Structures are given as structure tokens and as C-alpha cells.
Known about the structure:
Blueprint: E1 8-12, H1 17-28, E2 32-39, H2 46-57, E3 62-67, H3 105-120, E4 124-126, H4 142-155, H5 157-161, E5 167-169, H6 177-186, H7 211-222, H8 228-232
Parallel strand pairs: 1-2, 1-4, 2-3, 4-5
Helix pairs in contact: 1-6, 6-7
Amino acid sequence: MSASPLPKAVVLFSGGLDSSTVVAMAQQQGFEVHALSFRYGQRHVVELQAAQAVAKRMGLRHHITVDMDLRAFGGSALTADMAVPKGAQASPDQSGIPITYVPARNTVFLSYALAWAETLGSFDIFMGVNALDYSGYPDCRPEYIKAYERMANLATKAGVEGRQRLTIHAPLMAMNKAQIIQAGVGLGVDYALTSSCYDPGPQGQPCAACASCQLRAKGFAAAALDDPLYTRFGLPQPPAV
């Protein structure tokens, strides 16, 4: 008899540190990963190049990139002609919702993930949102994930028929950045291939000053590890803010 096929999971995958860790976690849990990336009008394609490199390194056979254009709405430093905050102005300790928040982005992304999961016969979606070391985005909170999960089970054929409930997994939700990095290292994630920067250089060099770079630097410092991305580019390790 042939082995039973692995259960399928759709993983929202940006090519960043968090989502790459989540891919490895889903694999460890025995899922066949179907990774979903987006070309949504973001200010650079470095993260998509990183996603392709990480997917290849992790042996993903199912990785697609969906095209959309959230620049039609703007409203974010990532999708409009606004400067990305740097240094003290970008500190993760700043109060309020930062201008790098893309309006409704996770809601849009989860809708695509839900559609793909339903066509695959999958009942599991993974995403790398985090409620501890995060940038104040309202669609990264546990109450948002639970609310979307409830909605998804009202909106799908499988949910209505009562065959099986969809689960949205957010395994990083209660972890700090250092814990995420330590978990990923233990799972063999090659963080040198990932991209976290909101405003990278033309070859993908991190700016070391945006909020995402600061969070990443803080995490590697707390984990007592050098960031291999900086080593890859021959850059000095960034200071932990």
C-alpha cells in the first residue's frame, strides 16, 4: 500500500524571517506546504526574490505568487509615495499605527489563502503574525485571527456542509523575535536568504534603520546570534536598538 498523502496547508509566505520560520514549522508538523506570496505593488521585489530562494532551499514544490495592485489605494509607505521612517522615527516603541501599515492587507491575503485552501481541500492556513514583537498593525492581533477564522467557516462550502472546520494557525503569535529566530535555527531555516527590510538596497541589502530591520536586529541580539543576512552582504552587524 502507498503511504497516505500528507495533509495540505496554505502558508502566507513573504520571504521574510517570520513567514520562513512558519513554513518550517508547518513542514515539521507534517503538512505539505502550499506557499502563497503576493506581488501587491510593494515598493520593492526583494522580498519576492527572497521567497523564491527560501522556497527552493526548503524544497517547496508548491509556491505561487499572485499579482494584485494595492497601489490603487495607497495609504501606506509600502504602496504609496511616502518615505519609510528610519531611525528613531521608526522605533518599534513608537505609539500608534505606523505608516508602513498597508490597509486591510492581511484580510486581502487571507481571502486568497482561503480560496486556494478550499480548492485544495485543505483545512489549514498558516501565517506569521505576532502580537509581541510587532509594529502595531491591527491585523496581527489574536482577536483578528479568531474573527477571520469564524468568518471563514461561515463562508466556505466545507464549513457550511459541516465536513471539517478550517483552522488559521499563527504559531508565532506569543513568541518574541529572539524565540522565533531560535526556533527557526533549530528547524534549519537559512535566514541569510530572507528579507525583512522595508527599504532594501538594489541587491537586497538591509537598510538597518527601518522598524522591521530594528526588530530583526533586536531579535538576533537577544538570541546572541549574528544575523547571517548581514554576513552574506559583508555588512557589520546592526546595533540592537
